[in-house]
UniProtKB/TrEMBL annotation:
PANTHER family: 30S RIBOSOMAL PROTEIN S2 PROKARYOTIC AND ORGANELLAR, SMALL RIBOSOMAL SUBUNIT PROTEIN US2M. It comes from Roseomonas indoligenes. This is Small ribosomal subunit protein uS2. The keyword Transmembrane does not apply. One of its GO terms (cellular component) is cytosolic small ribosomal subunit. GO terms for molecular function: structural constituent of ribosome. GO terms for biological process: translation. NCBIfam families: rpsB_bact. InterPro entries: Ribosomal_uS2, Ribosomal_uS2_bac/mit/plastid, Ribosomal_uS2_CS, Ribosomal_uS2_flav_dom_sf. It comes from the Bacteria. Pfam families: Ribosomal_S2 (PF00318).
Length: 307
């Protein structure tokens, strides 16, 4: 799959350029604001296009190197799209609530993930010996952990890059990533604080169409990175030093060897002209019928005696 193409028209159709009311803005976003229309800030999409492309290429390079991407979007408008996009491209997500220490206290989170897997196995297997109340309590605990950790249960370690939809709501996630030196890619609205974001993407973080566009592009970049990783790890048979050689048998001693001309360029033997008057040689040429029948009978007798 090829890298997604970021176009000005596509961003406009998704409403990426619409910011918040002029009363709700962060002065740190002033360099990314194009102007004001009906008391609403309009984001400069001419900056969004190259910044989005840079972020997508970063994700692609991380995945091509075998890295992990964590999608983070816990707001109601983004939760479903974040989970769907991350699951589709085989990455990880947090879409319910960011637990404090989810990155900085990974050891504790790992223990909770193990507990979640154990409860899954217990509820899926034999629950004999447990009362209905105990099963209900276990199910509720499992659902609670699954909402918080279900998207990262198979991550196996810290991510190499995180993609955030709303920098205000996911402020804790950005702070933890900065402490650990994990690059942050984030959609920054006109009221956002781009501090701590290594790859800011100026854009609307509330419109459903815009959020869907961000998630689809990130998933496509992940797919392209996976394709690049598979291509890099593929075995090139033509590059192998020692290839098996087929030894052709020497047919110089076969009857009638050299009597049939070679075929050149895929031409059939029938297409090769035969000189007029030439006599085609045969293994039995010059042998009369009586002698030939005697030879066949002798071969049969020899075979019967050998058996």
């Amino acid at each position: 799959m090829a890298m997604p193409e970021v176009t000005l028209r596509g961003l406009l159709e998704a409403g990426v350029h619409f910011g918040h009311h002029t009363r709700r803005w962060n002065p740190k976003m002033a360099p990314y604001i194009f102007g004001v229309r009906n008391q609403v800030h309009i984001l400069d999409l001419q900056q969004t296009v190259p910044l989005m492309d840079r972020a997508l290429r970063t994700v692609r390079d991380v995945v091509a190197g075998g890295g992990r991407v964590l999608f983070v979007g816990t707001k109601k408008a983004a939760a479903d799209y974040v989970a769907e996009a991350a699951t589709r491209c085989g990455q990880y997500y947090v879409n319910h609530r960011w637990l404090g220490g989810m990155l900085t206290n990974w050891k504790t989170i790992t223990g909770s993930i193990k507990r979640l897997k154990q409860m899954d196995e217990q509820l899926a297997g034999n629950t004999t010996g447990l009362t209905k109340k105990e099963i209900l309590m276990l199910t509720r605990e499992k659902e609670k952990l699954d909402r918080a950790l279900g998207g990262i249960r198979e991550m196996g370690g810290l991510p190499d890059v995180i993609f955030v939809i709303d920098t205000i709501k996911e402020k804790l996630a950005i702070e933890e990533a900065n402490k650990l030196g994990i690059p942050v890619i984030a959609v920054c609205d006109s009221n956002a604080d781009p501090s701590g974001v290594a790859f800011p993407i100026p854009g609307n973080d509330d419109a459903i169409r815009a959020i869907n566009l961000y998630c689809d592009m990130m998933a496509a970049a992940v797919f392209d990175g996976i394709s690049a990783e598979l291509s890099a790890s593929g075995m090139d048979v033509g590059a192998q030093a020692d290839l098996p050689t087929d030894v052709m048998p020497d047919d110089s001693g076969l009857p009638g060897a050299g009597a049939v001309p070679e075929t050149l360029g895929g031409a059939e033997v029938a297409d090769v002209p035969v000189l007029e008057g030439a006599v085609q040689s045969s293994p039995t040429s010059g042998v009369d019928r009586e002698s030939l029948e005697q030879m066949v009978q002798n071969n049969r007798d020899d075979g019967n005696n050998a058996g």
